[in-house]
Amino acid sequence: MRPPIDRVTSRSRTLASCAARLLAIAFGCWPLSAAAEPVYDVDLYALMSGTCSHLNIAGRSYTCRAVAYFHNQRGRSEFTVVLNDPADTSHIVSFSGENAERVGDNLFELSVDRMLLKSRDRPRVDGLPVPLVEMSTGSCRQVGSFVTRQISSISCGATDLLGRRYELNFESDGSPMTLRRLRQTSLPSENRKARLMAQLECRLKARAARILPRDTPAFVIRCLGEDDDKPAADRQ
Question: What is the pTM of this model?
Answer without folding.
Answer: 0.68
